[in-house]
Design a protein that fits this description.
Elements: H1 4-10, H2 15-27, H3 32-43, H4 46-61, H5 69-84, H6 87-99, H7 106-128, H8 136-151, H9 170-175, H10 178-193, H11 195-207, H12 212-239, H13 242-262, H14 267-275, H15 277-296, H16 301-330, H17 333-354
Amino acid sequence: MPYWSLYLEGQGYSYLQIATLMATIQLTKIVAPSVWGYIGDRTGQRVRLVRFGAIFGSLFFAGVFLEPGFYGLLLVMLVFTFFWNAILPLYEVITLRVLGKHRDKYGKVRLWGSVGFIGAVALVGGLLELVEIQYLPWLLLPVFAGIAVSAFLVPSERGERKQQSAPVGSLKAIVTHPAVIAFFAMNFLLQVSHGAYYTFFSIHLEQHGYGKLAIGLLWSLGVIAEIGLFLIMHRLSRRFSVRQVVLGALVLTMIRWGLIAELTSVLPVLIFAQLLHAASYGALHAVSVQYIQGFFGKHHHGQGQALYSGLTFGAGGALGAWLSGFLVDGFSTSAAFWGGAAAMALAIIVTWRGLQPPPEPQLAH
């Protein structure tokens, strides 16, 4: 993610084409997690589905090396991400099932994804100081191979088919609950606001004179803050209500986008803005995963996780990336971050008016 937009820029694509290509990464999250989540719920074979997604996602990514042009690359990224976006939602369910009553320790497990991100970004950033950005796809191959191999180190689940006695109409009742609608609307706007960050942050930094290693380290700083948040999230959840945590995180996210828009060249301010990633991703994601478990319960957990990924990271992320492309193309990268701040202002209003805490998971039906 930190370097792909720079790679596309190096291939000669326009800002709007870059935004469209980056949006496909999010776009398939609308459909793919629901498809894979449904299959996982029906069969109970989530580990095997993770392996399947890792292998076929890696194989289809190889289409990048054919240099297929804009529409060809669009197709490659759509097919690749359809398999790739199956992995994380399935793994979230696997992790929470294994943790059981100790689900408050989810953050301590999830932080290893953040550690991996930091290591990869720092290593690739250092290598890109030595080689041209056009070699980025080759640097990704060992990472994809490692994920495919590690998926086979996880023990297979015993096939556990979905109970046919599950209440048939309950999923519709859950998704039409006012608190659930407010929850999804808040997360949708949150991901719209991240469109400029995931699509143009690296280009924005490069325009302000930062090198590729510095760009990678700044991305990593945000994830380090995220790790710190995951480590203390269980304490925050005991001291503050869900509503307080979410509203506080949204306000800090709005401030973050404003700082990046206007004060990127002031390094201490930029460092502070990146530390706020602990709020804009860490806190809100940790709350959301438990929120889904609480409202969707045992019978619809997989589909609830898929809806969360599809409607927020998928639809919200894709729309945010695309809209940011228009703002950058018509104005500047700073304008795109101000657009993100505006989306956060709407999310704060939605949350203030409609968000309620989720029920305890064992009581949800």
